[in-house]
Model the fold of this input.
Amino acid sequence: MLSRYFKPSILKKIAESAGTPVYVYSASAFLRQIASYKKAFRALDPLFCYAMKANSSGGLCSLAAGEGWGADVVSGGELYRALKAGFKPGKIIFSGVGKTPAELEYALRTGVLFVNAESFEEVIELERAAARLNLRAPLSLRINPDVDPHTHKYITTGRLGSKFGVSFKEARKIYLYAAGSKRLQPVGAQFHIGSQVHSPRPYAMAAGRLAAFILKLASRGINLGYADIGGGWGVKEGAEMADPAPLAAAAAGVFSGTGIKLVVEPGRSVAAPSGLLLTRTIYRKRGGHKNFIIVDAAMNDFIRPALYGASHPVSLIGPGRGPQKLYDIVGPVCESGDFLAEGALLREPASGQLLAVYSAGAYGFSMSSQYNSRPRAAEALITGASSWRLIRRRETYKDLTANEL
Ligand code: LLP
Done:
């Protein structure tokens, strides 16, 4: 259970000192998921590039940098934050379907390991940026392997007809073009099939297609050194990551002994179990046949339940009153879709009582907004048995208008 990383005594202290809502992360939970990846992939010795989009808070992702991991970034802003968090430029890869010329130039000036390009037009733009900087751009292509990972449609990315990647046919054309360009150096190929993928099968299928493609390219004299199999390994809400050994075995089955260096981009699986959202009860009420707990966190803080129908376990910090009942836990935002949980089985919390929403370490704060002019939450990191520190202060009302002219 994740609660062993988040003792009620420390959560209460954090809430008192930092206020609520507050994201609370556990350094030891985060490091444990990282260790689990390292162990499972030991024989393959891949480069792990932590997907910053899952949680780009410096205080947390610097722990990944400290473990020798690289970073997978999808914007100039993430690249900036990755460098600040201590990731080595040569271990950063730059992905994303719409990188601007300025972002490509920033990546090349930084000296990233490679750029995962997603269209011919982007490759031309990359070539131009390399010419402006008088260097050669390390190029990898995101290839759409047309594999169905059986996950939510909003987080399925590797089927033809999605906006991501290029087909194998298009990729072949682009690599042949790149091989003839003095400003481009083809170094790798990547796929990413989706997020919350719980089976190794679609990975094995996509990896097999990628490896066959890489071999064919080699017969044309184009030798790619890196195969990047994306992220997306699933983790159940409320639990630690399941052993990624089956994922490693799928990759090993295809790439072992090929001399190709493997790159893996885990995001959610390391970050989600490592964080929770701590919120306070404001009011309780009944509406029709439903019991509501109205808390001070809302969809602007944590949008996963509203956007994906994700179901995150919630528990009271401290005892509740009376028998267990089904509650909808909702926030103050003026939308019916503003809920953190529907039908959670809980005892009644006291007014002001704390609640924890688990598995909120990934795509929680990083997807938060100021909707309804709600200042964004604070973030705290538990560093030891009874030690913690604030890693991001709560926004103020002043922050809401700070950029207005
Ligand atoms: N690499 C690339 C190129 C990606 O697009 C993604 C996620 C990852 C790695 C990391 O995937 P992960 O290991 O975190 O599943 N906001 C959604 C998830 C969107 C994932 C998009 N791409 C959610 O909260 O479920």
